[in-house]
Specification:
It is an enzyme of class 5 (isomerase). Residues 154-338 form the Helicase ATP-binding domain. Residues 369-547 form the Helicase C-terminal domain. It is found in: Nucleus. Residues 790-810 are annotated as: Disordered. The protein is α/β, with parallel strands linked by helices. Among the domains are: 129-352, 3-Layer(aba) Sandwich (Rossmann fold); 360-565, 3-Layer(aba) Sandwich (Rossmann fold), CATH 3.40.50; 571-705, Arc Repressor Mutant, subunit A (Orthogonal Bundle), CATH 1.10.10. The chain is 40% helix and 16% strand. The chain contains 30 helices and 28 strands. The strands form six sheets. An eight-stranded parallel sheet has the order 5-6-4-7-8-3-11-9. The protein has a six-stranded parallel sheet with strand order 12-17-16-13-15-14. The chain has a five-stranded mixed sheet with strand order 21-22-24-26-25, sandwiched between helices. Helix 6 runs parallel beside helix 7 (175-183) and helix 24 crosses helix 26.
Length: 832
């Protein structure tokens, strides 16, 4: 056969056995073609019988080698079959004990379902390990009984199942993996998003005598090497007295999994040594972009199931809507969920607990405008209702936390011991505060939202909010720090409409703030139902998440402020006409080049300041300030006949309903916050007053507080010399209209490295070294026009207030006053 024919056969996809001689001949020809000339000459010199002998020798050698490979293949095949048989045998044994029988006399865990009679297990009953769980729980954690779905999750953990557990804040998620970790050989890996959470967990576990470690980017190199060496020894089963006891829990951040090849190699050794008991992923909703706290490195945790397919995974979350749950299962490569009360063998066991916690009693109380009065009210509340009890006071900014802590301790004459917690507090002081708070040496922690995540203190009897939270999600989480032991606890929010502007100025996220305002403004609907409706709409959670054994989601709780409020303490009013008036007045002001804050609109609508407002006078090339007076009768059919507090409440209600919106105006140093007509405003402003009065418009309902027929509460006497009172009073007296920022060229504060404050650092650094300007101590006098601002500039010398009509030299000023009618005509008047 010719050489070309041989090559054609050689490159075909299939080579038959009878083509082997041709291939050998072709290979020899190719070899000869590429051989040196001297070799060819030597080959040509050999007789043909010698050449055949050489070829036969090579063929024999290859045949022996092929036979050796075939023998290895036969041995490997036999070994593979043996391993498969052993695996099948182990699988059968595993399946026989997988759904272990419960303890005798305590129920039947095994059930059958459907025509296939598929076995299912109820993990909520007792098993043969239940007594050991109960004894260990009491001995180590001093907990006598399981709460919510803790028992079922622990049982499924002991059974080596993949689990998704959704429990509310304070429900006791940590126990569901810490307790099984103590009874299971090996180490439990816990992946957590916050260093502060891990630090607190480690502190608590070590206090209980549990071997727990933490590995982060900030772990000192000597400690890092020591921990890795201990884990390596565990993997090799060489734990001895010198290296210490077996590590039961190892906490890491998701970044450690995603970026450290060394650590992943260490985990692989633990798996090979049978020492990686389970993987726990806390705050698992962070893996989903549809979750409210997405973190990219969480998505990289999918490699855990890829590299360690037989290590059980426990995913934990406080809120996990259906779409987020499906995303989590996909990312973590977990199988579809099955019910924890009837779990088939093949699936991820799902547990959930109602988000409603009946032991928490919610109250939204009227917040006075005076800082000293608020401090006195909070101090009296603690002394009268929670003397000696542990509690938390959440504040908006770091400076507020410090002032509130100092003032409450001073006002109470030291009877209330307070501590301060925020991102700028040194780690050593934070740890000391944790210890003092747990031991009762500090009664109340005044803190920003940096405090609370993972804080494992069950007997917190009250959580007070000095100012509204930045979102209703945040408020639910923060207030949920109370009553983790299942006993009654109070959640009190101090609220006044002016806080809306301050919070909006810092967060600049209208929707989040408006949801919080809607909750605070409501004085009729049960707080439980308000939470249920919000989470159902915002997170697509089923209303069943708020259903308990005792009540349905839409049943009133019967113990919140709105369920227990006396009818004569609130007035539910149709305020559509007043809302129309406010919009008309605001529309007239804007058409003349003016802008108003909440306080400014409230005062102008009541005719304060002579019913006039200023325009111009700001920035370069602007006209001089000009006062324009409104003709209320022609513009809005008269002044608004509500009190200042009621008008401000109505303005906030209009913000929530989108009849008004916040308008932010930024300069090099300030962010000014005004109110402007919203996208719903035209529904009213296009109508006449007569149309609105006669009901030919959308109706705006608003609730107003009434105190036994009075609209104002009695003032509380407080020592004005109390440290921090004057400073704090300036910070909350009226709610902001301007926030001053530091120039970009010069930073007046250091970057915050504590990740706990990552959501609020911008806001808090904004106010970290600030003072209040133009703030009255109290706006109880309705005739006072209150406005305020934050400033990072040095304080200006105090100036004597000028009397009306005088300029800087005390000479009567030349007035330029305009009168604004319904046609927006401006008439200039002179006064000498």
């Amino acid at each position: 056969m010719g050489k070309h024919m041989i090559q054609k056969k050689y490159i075909s996809d299939h080579v038959a056995s009878d083509d082997m001689d041709d291939i050998i001949e072709m290979s020899l020809a190719d070899h000869c073609d590429g051989a040196p000339a001297s070799d060819l000459s030597k080959s040509a010199e050999k007789p043909s019988y010698l050449q055949k002998h050489d070829l036969n020798t090579q063929l024999s050698s290859l045949e022996v080698e092929i036979q050796g490979v075939d023998e290895q293949i036969r041995k490997l095949t036999a070994l593979r079959e043996s391993l498969i048989a052993e695996k099948e045998d182990l699988t059968q044994k595993h399946n026989r004990i997988n759904h272990v029988q419960p303890a005798q006399g305590l129920g039947d865990a095994i059930r059958t379902k459907g025509k296939s009679k598929a076995a299912t297990v109820d993990y909520t009953v007792s098993f043969d390990w239940s007594t050991q769980l109960q004894v260990t729980m009491k001995k180590v954690f001093n907990i006598s009984d399981f709460r919510l779905c803790q028992k079922g999750v622990c049982n499924a953990n002991m059974d080596g199942r993949d689990i998704v557990c959704v429990m509310p804040t304070g429900g006791g998620k940590s126990l569901t993996y810490q307790l099984p970790a103590l009874l299971t050989p090996g180490c439990t890996l816990v992946i957590s998003p916050l260093i502060s959470l891990m630090t607190d967990q480690i502190l608590h576990l070590r206090e209980s005598g549990v071997e727990a470690v933490m590995l982060t980017g900030g772990t000192p190199r000597p400690l890092l090497n020591e921990i890795q060496q201990r884990l390596t020894s565990m993997a090799s089963s060489r734990v001895n007295g010198q290296q210490g006891p077996e590590i039961k829990l190892c906490y890491v951040t998701p970044e450690k999994i995603a970026k450290s090849k060394t650590f992943m190699s260490l985990l692989r050794r633990l798996v090979e040594g049978g020492k990686l008991a389970r993987i726990v992923i806390d705050e698992a909703h962070c893996a989903s972009q549809m979750g409210h706290d997405f973190r990219p490195d969480y998505r990289k945790l999918s490699i855990l199931r890829q590299f360690f397919p037989h290590v059980p995974i426990l995913a934990l979350s406080a809120t996990c809507p259906p779409r987020v749950l499906q995303d989590i299962l996909k990312i973590l490569k977990m199988k579809p969920v099955v019910d924890g009360k009837a779990a088939i063998h093949d699936g991820t066991v799902y547990f959930s607990a109602p988000l409603y916690r009946k032991n928490l009693h919610y109250n939204v109380l009227s917040k006075p405008s005076s800082a000293k009065e608020l401090i006195a009210i909070m101090s009296d509340y603690i002394l009268q209702n929670h003397s000696g009890h542990s509690g938390i006071i959440y504040c908006l900014a770091k400076k507020d936390a410090e002032s509130v802590a100092e003032s409450i301790q001073a006002v109470s004459n030291g009877r209330i011991k307070t501590g301060v917690y925020h991102a700028d507090v040194e780690d050593g002081r934070k740890e000391k505060l944790h210890m003092q708070w747990r031991e009762g040496k500090v009664q109340v922690v005044c803190a920003t939202i940096a405090f609370g995540l993972g804080i494992d203190k069950g007997n917190v009897r009250f959580v007070l909010h000095h100012t509204i939270s930045k979102s209703l999600d945040g408020y639910y989480q923060e207030s949920g720090r109370a009553g983790r032991d299942g006993q009654d606890a109070d959640c009190v929010l101090y609220y006044r409409p002016q806080d809306a502007t301050r919070q909006a100025s810092i967060t600049c996220r209208d929707q989040d703030v408006h949801d919080m305002l809607r909750f605070a403004q409501d004085m009729q609907e049960c707080r439980k139902i308000l939470f249920a409706k919000y989470f159902s709409a915002s997170s697509d959670l089923s209303m069943a998440s708020w259903t308990t054994d005792e009540s349905n989601a839409m049943d009133r709780c019967g113990h919140c402020d709105n369920c227990t409020r006396p009818p004569d303490n609130v007035e539910h009013k149709d305020a559509t006409v007043e809302a129309w008036q406010l919009l008309k007045i605001l529309e007239a002001v804007e058409s003349s080049g003016g802008r108003l804050t909440i306080a400014g609109l409230s005062d102008l609508a009541r005719g304060l300041g002579g019913g006039s407002f200023e325009t111009g006078g700001a920035g370069k090339r602007r006209k001089a300030k000009e006062k324009i007076q409104i003709d209320f009768d022609s513009v809005a059919g008269g002044k608004v006949g509500l009190s200042k507090d009621d008008i401000e409440s109505l303005i906030v209600q209009m913000l929530v309903l989108r009849y008004l919106e916040e308008a932010f105006s930024s300069t090099a140093y300030t962010v000014n916050v005004y109110v402007a007509p919203g996208n719903q405003a035209l529904r009213l402003t296009r109508l006449t007053r007569e149309d609105v009065v006669n009901g030919r418009s959308p109706r705006i309902q608003c609730s107003f507080r009434r105190f036994g027929g009075k609209t104002k509460s009695k003032k509380v006497a407080v020592d004005r010399q109390c440290p921090g009172i004057l400073e704090l009073e300036e910070s909350i007296s009226a709610g902001p209209s301007r926030i001053r920022k530091a120039p970009k060229k010069k930073r007046l504060y250091e970057d915050v490295s504590d990740p706990d404050d990552q959501d609020v650092d911008e806001a808090e650094d904004f106010t970290n070294q600030i003072r209040m300007l133009d703030a009255e101590e109290s706006d109880a006098d309705d005739d006072d026009v209150v406005d305020w601002a934050y400033s990072l500039r040095p304080p200006q010398p105090t100036k004597k207030r000028r009397t009306s009509g005088e300029n800087a030299k005390g000479i009567p000023a030349r007035l330029n006053i305009g009168v604004l009618s319904d046609k927006h005509e401006v008439i200039s008047l002179s006064s000498d």
